[in-house]
Amino acid sequence: MSQLKVNTIRHTGASSDAIELASDGTCTAKITNQPPGNRNKIINGAMTINQRSHSGTAGNNAYTLDRWKYQRSANAEFDVVQSTEQAPGFANCLRLDCTTGSGTVGAGDYVKLRYHLEGFDVQDFAKGTASAKKFALSFYVKTSTTGVYAVSLLDENSRMVTGTYTVSDTNWNRYSIIFPADTTGTCANDNSAELSIEFNIIAGSNRTSGTDLRTAWGTYATASEAVGHTANPGSSASNNVYITGVQLEVGDVATDFEHRSHGEELARCQRYFQKYNCRAQEWIYVEANGAQYKWWWCPFTAMRSQPTTDISGLGTGSGFSAAGTSETVSSIAQTSISNAGDVNGTVSYRLTFSGTFGTSWNMHHIDGWNGQVVTFSSEL
Predict the structure, then answer these.
(1) What pTM value is reported for the model?
(2) Which domains does the chain have, with CATH numbers?
(3) Nearest-CA neighbor of 110 among 198, 221, 212, 242?
(4) What pLDDT is stored for residue 149 in this prediction?
(5) Residue 346 has pLDDT above 80, yes or no
(6) 283, pLDDT greater than 90
(7) pLDDT average, residue stretch 150-169
(8) Per the count of CB atoms within 10 A, which of 31, 39, 210, 324 is most buried?
(9) Distance between CA 374 and CA 275 in Å, rounded?
(10) In terms of C-beta density within 10 A (0-12 exposed, 13-18 middle, 19 or more buried), how is residue 100 classed?
(11) What is the CB neighbour count within 10 angstroms for residue 228?
């Protein structure tokens, strides 16, 4: 039996090794065809989940499609829409539609999409250690505005690194940026926001005039966020930008996008935001015999941390019935919430009715909330 003994294998035109062989008989390989799963750090990178049903104007620092935050200055505005414009292999994308066109970008103007990652999910980058790994970011973009766009990585140690990509046509294209490893600034191993990605859409000179950090990590500065960015999709109200297939992974090779099932992607999104759709009959409990107060318990599944709740979608006023007795809900107040993160939880609400009925702790129900929504948020 013949043997070929080498330490590495590399294509004649490549700048790095495709396979590295170790003395213990194992190897490390860069595989781009059907690579193993659980590589992509981005949740909802294919823009398929939109629990908020967002479509249109978004305020600064507002979440739109799940996990994607929209940030802008006061002088720039885009609508954010979940679109069915399809990049190859994708059913959805996030579309930015310019609504207030201006040929001039002011020094303080900016528009960007931001994504936050938990410390739990970035430990294999080994950031801040001697074994630090590179960051491979890939994504699909289609836009009516050609030019140079900047993307930044930021950590919670006030460190950052930037990269640029050049759009030369108005078709769908896949772009990749390999960010360098960083041996400074460890990411905490917890559920806090430890790493962020910023996709710059518009960037004025206040964000492009700083230190060029496209080859190495450095100290964060607003002026360094988008060095090299020149494109201005805000020049006309007819302009738009589409993005999908966003993937962040460990290493110096951007592999094929990791598609996940709709159910799995939804469950991952619900760690940060979820909603409870009320049933035709929501059961309540009488606080005491003849009292005006009743109790309602609303459940939610495991989240990143104890969430904040929004009950503004629940109606008050006439038209609510409890066990066949017509009453009016005059107010709803949250009294407690049980959730320590990573476990299912329950919120308790005290309902005030205009009338009184029932026996102490007897069960009744509200029929008027059918289809109305309570939301839970533990976004980063």
Answers:
(1) 0.89
(2) 37-269 (2.60.120.260), 274-377 (no CATH)
(3) 198
(4) 98
(5) yes
(6) no
(7) 98
(8) 210
(9) 6
(10) exposed
(11) 19
